[in-house]
Amino acid sequence: MAATFASRCSRVGRSLFGGLSNSSPGLFTTSHEITCNNLFTQQQRTFIQMGTVLKVVDNSGAKKVMCIKALKGEKGARLGDTIQASVKEAHPNGKVKKGKVVCGVVVRAAMQKGRCDGSEVKFDDNAVVLVDKQGQPIGTRVFGPVPHELRQKKHVKILTLAGHIA
């Protein structure tokens, strides 16, 4: 559940040996090959897309939801994006019942998200906060850390309900 911060590290250093990098894993690996390998691993990462099961981290009554569709991106949703989801598990006396189609804001994603200061934020799980049609949270509490990128996406109410902002 804790956020993992890592500074962005790119190996584009040059040495006296004609463009070879001494800090590379292999002795004769060029910096261009390392950059291409980093781009290749970034292309394999997945978004929160249709069929992804997410944990609900508010007290709306739902436990798990499955993403039906991402409302913004073509490929999927990232931190702060709104999705449509179907409730798969719910508490018996909650506001939200099993089988209901709801909207939610992604507050934690296992995919890395780069920040403007060069660091990256990555969470252990995929989590969502359920919201109504106007974008207001259904629950009154938000559990666990939420990223401060939600402020840029105009989800300030979720930030005020959260106990810890990462």
State the main characteristics.
Ribosomal Protein L14, single chain, 3-stranded antiparallel beta sheet, RNA-binding, globular, ribonucleoprotein, ribosomal protein
What is Rg? 19 Å
- CATH topology of the largest domain, which one? Ribosomal Protein L14
Give the H and E element order.
EHEEEEEEEEHE
What strand line-up does the widest sheet have?
A: 2-3-4-5-8
Can you give a write-up of this model?
The chain is mainly beta and 166 residues long. The protein folds into two domains: 10-43, no CATH class; 53-165, Ribosomal protein L14/L23 (Ribosomal Protein L14, Beta Barrel), CATH 2.40.150.20. It has two helices and ten strands, in the order E-H-E-E-E-E-E-E-E-E-H-E. The strands form three sheets. A five-stranded mixed beta barrel has the order 2-3-4-5-8. Strand 6 and strand 7 (119-122) form a beta hairpin. It is globular, with a radius of gyration of 19 Å. The protein starts with a strand and ends with a strand.
Topology:
Layout: E1 4-7, H1 31-43, E2 53-56, E3 62-70, E4 82-90, E5 101-108, E6 113-114, E7 119-122, E8 127-131, E9 142-146, H2 156-161, E10 162-165
Parallel strand pairs: 2-8, 9-10
Antiparallel strand pairs: 1-7, 2-3, 3-4, 4-5, 5-8, 6-7
InterPro entries: Ribosomal_uL14, Ribosomal_uL14_bac-type, Ribosomal_uL14_CS, Ribosomal_uL14_sf
Protein name: 50S ribosomal protein L14
GO molecular function: large ribosomal subunit rRNA binding; structural constituent of ribosome
